[in-house]
């Protein structure tokens, strides 16, 4: 690649996927033995959150060199400083190699974090976190620096230790982005969460708050929602720096339990503000950010066969059962009794027949890998009638776990009931 572009005349990063942003210029790679090598580079972040660095070494290195990079520093063609010092992982170099440079050495790296310094010696007043796959309707008109208006979602997040105000703003092409996400079931940044920093503010605090917020949003929308970059701005709205992070993202899945647009977006705002304190209080004891919610979201994802998605729901319930027993210090007990205790503890009113059916569905999926409607014997059918078809049983599991997680987070308001295939119902209360 050339210093002012690349020899193909197009973005090389597009070989890896759609790009959020790209940078190119000259830099230096430092490897594990301390040696440094000059390179021309192209770096950037994909819409799925991955951060990549492509290097064309100058002068060419030996072609059999194994490059174990530990640090990268460079200057972009715009004069910005760019660096990466965390978690380099060499990967395949996908762009075509120019015929006249076939003896050169090219390398590609996945990077955990990349920082781009746009302006020097400026204090950050605002942080903008890029958030993937979140569909919403704003509740408050807000003026942008160019005097245009956006409908934004202001949030007042209260916990026992602090109070944080955030504003969620749609990206300019939010409508188009969401249409693509719904159609292609892909990953993309759809909005930004904006925080104002005081003079003594700690960026790490806001990072933790947005981490928590993304898990709450994920439960609300039934799909993995994640932040993948953090931009810093000064008081006048000038960009100071960009931090790009490779974080775990998942394709969009349209199984929300809090409606994105119903009641003008107010249900979403109420859900977030009502559950935030409970989420923070239970985050550690119930491993909410360490597998409990992610297992539940994976069960809703559409990449697997329906049986495997059903098994994942059973596994998600096993994880929740385990963390619940540890949180309230229960020893032993049959699966059914633990589920009953869990429902009582979170104040979820469940018909005993519904618990019977859930236990039979779980047992069938865990022990035989099939839905209960396929494995129920005549004796079992007399004791607990199965549902008619596999999609109906799967959506029964969806609804059951949805209600468990809503009540676990202390929520009792309106939600979407997915039990009837093709006909989700908006319920007034969990």
Please provide a brief summary of the model.
The protein is of the alpha+beta class.
Explain what you see.
39% of the residues are buried. The protein is globular. A 15-stranded antiparallel beta sheet has the order 6-7-3-2-1-4-5-8-15-14-9-13-12-11-10. Strands 16-17 form a two-stranded antiparallel ribbon. With 430 residues, the protein is of the alpha+beta class. It has 10 helices and 17 strands. The protein starts with 18 loop residues before the first strand and ends with a strand.
List keywords for this structure.
alpha+beta, 430 residues, 17 strands, 15-stranded antiparallel beta sheet, single chain, globular, two-stranded antiparallel sheet, 10 helices
Helix content: 25-40%
Shape, per Cα inertia axes: globular
How far is the first residue's CA from the last residue's CA?
57 Å
Rg: 25 Å
- Quickly give the structural class: alpha+beta
Going across the biggest sheet, name each strand in turn.
Answer: 6-7-3-2-1-4-5-8-15-14-9-13-12-11-10
SSE run: EEEEEEEEEEEEHEHEEHHHHHHHHEE
**Integer average pLDDT:** 91
Percentage of β-strand residues:
25-35%
Number of domains: 3
Please describe the topology of this protein.
Elements: E1 19-31, E2 36-46, E3 51-57, E4 69-76, E5 81-86, E6 89-91, E7 106-111, E8 113-117, E9 126-132, E10 140-143, E11 149-158, E12 163-170, H1 174-184, E13 189-196, H2 203-221, E14 227-233, E15 239-245, H3 266-282, H4 288-300, H5 306-327, H6 335-345, H7 352-368, H8 372-375, H9 378-383, H10 390-408, E16 415-417, E17 425-427
Antiparallel strand pairs: 1-2, 1-4, 2-3, 3-7, 4-5, 5-8, 6-7, 8-15, 9-13, 9-14, 10-11, 11-12, 12-13, 14-15, 16-17
């Amino acid at each position: 690649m050339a210093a002012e572009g690349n020899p193909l005349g197009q973005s090389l990063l597009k070989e890896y996927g759609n790009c959020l942003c790209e940078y190119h210029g000259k830099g230096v790679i430092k490897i594990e033995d301390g040696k440094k090598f000059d390179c021309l580079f192209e770096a950037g972040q994909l819409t799925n959150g991955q951060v990549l660095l492509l290097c064309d070494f100058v002068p060419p290195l030996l072609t059999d060199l194994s490059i174990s990079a530990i640090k990268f520093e460079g200057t972009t063609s715009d004069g910005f400083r760019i660096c990466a010092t965390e978690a380099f992982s060499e990967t395949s170099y996908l762009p075509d190699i120019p015929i006249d440079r076939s003896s050169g050495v090219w390398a590609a790296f996945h990077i955990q974090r990349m920082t781009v310094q746009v302006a020097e010696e400026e204090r950050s007043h605002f942080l903008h976190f890029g958030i993937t796959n979140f569909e919403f309707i704003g509740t408050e008109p807000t003026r942008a620096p160019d005097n245009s208006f956006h409908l934004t979602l202001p949030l007042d997040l209260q916990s026992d230790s602090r109070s944080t105000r955030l504003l969620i703003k749609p990206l300019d092409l939010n409508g188009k982005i969401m249409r693509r996400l719904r159609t292609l079931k892909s990953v993309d940044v759809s909005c930004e969460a904006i925080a104002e920093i005081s003079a003594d503010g700690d960026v790490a605090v806001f990072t933790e708050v947005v981490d928590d917020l993304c898990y709450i949003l994920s439960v609300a929308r039934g799909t993995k929602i994640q932040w993948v970059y953090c931009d810093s701005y000064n008081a006048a709205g000038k960009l100071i720096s960009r931090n790009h992070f490779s974080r775990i993202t998942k394709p969009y899945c349209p199984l929300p339990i809090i409606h994105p647009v119903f009641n003008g977006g107010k249900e979403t705002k109420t859900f977030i503000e009502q559950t935030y304190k409970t989420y923070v209080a239970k985050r550690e004891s119930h491993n909410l950010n360490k597998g409990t919610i992610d297992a539940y979201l994976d069960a809703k994802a559409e990449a697997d066969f329906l049986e495997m998605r059903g098994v994942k729901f059973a596994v998600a319930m096993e994880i929740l059962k385990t963390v619940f027993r540890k949180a309230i210090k229960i020893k032993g007990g049959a699966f059914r009794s633990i589920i009953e205790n869990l429902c009582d503890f979170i104040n979820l009113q469940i018909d005993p027949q519904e618990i019977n059916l859930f236990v039979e569905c779980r047992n069938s999926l865990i022990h035989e890998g099939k839905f209960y409607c396929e494995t129920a014997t005549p004796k079992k059918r007399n004791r607990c009638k199965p549902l008619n078809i596999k999609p109906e049983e799967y959506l029964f599991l969806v609804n059951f776990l949805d209600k468990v997680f809503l009540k676990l987070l202390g929520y009792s308001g309106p939600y979407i009931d997915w039990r009837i295939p093709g006909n989700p119902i908006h319920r007034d209360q969990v």
